[in-house]
Fold:
Amino acid sequence: MSEQTKDITVFVVDDHAVVRRGIASFLEFVDDISVIGEAADGQEALEKLDAMHAHGELPDVVLLDLNMPRLDGIQTAAALAERHPAIRTVILTSFTEMERVQAALTHGVSGYVLKDASSDEVEAAIRASQRDEVFLDTAIARRLTQRLVTPSAGLGSLSTREREVLRLVAGGLSNRAIADQLAISERTARTHVSRLLAKLGLSSRTQAALVAVREGLVAP
Structure:
């Protein structure tokens, strides 16, 4: 790694110490990813991250469990999106229910990975979040894709604003550029992108662009 390359900094939130230690252990062997903090639940995470923010030391990515005491993962993700919108959040959980996935994506989560995933997949989710992309576990992406065959799925399920965002995604715009174009916050733009990907059963911006072309929303 060159001296000019900045490490991706990660904060781990899970109520099981063995999980936190395991994640930190395998990330230690990744040259440009560093774990800079951890917490046992969402409330503790918010308190620690607020303190880190005061010193200009916020992490780039928070790895977040869903089922935790005091403040669960969905509530924590929502609070993070409001208080620290620059942080990317990746859910690392054993829950595969679509309702939980949809709820997470609604709050702008950048990734949803199952705890039985390989270390390479967790690393990939962290890196994807840094590129402002959405990373979904293969099984989750497959189940979301299956929803395309239901009447409520497809472009008809998108709001007018989501269709507009989809056109901009297909045009290659980043979340920041979309926010500037629509005069909204970057966090709101990221939430729109996550939500439309979930509704369409897609796992990447590239797939969304292909759908937009296929459905005639933009020229090929």
Residues 150-214 form a domain with the Arc Repressor Mutant, subunit A fold (CATH 1.10.10.10). The longest strand covers residues 33-39. The chain has a mean pLDDT of 86. Strands lie at 8-13, 33-39, 61-64, 88-93, 111-114, 135-136.
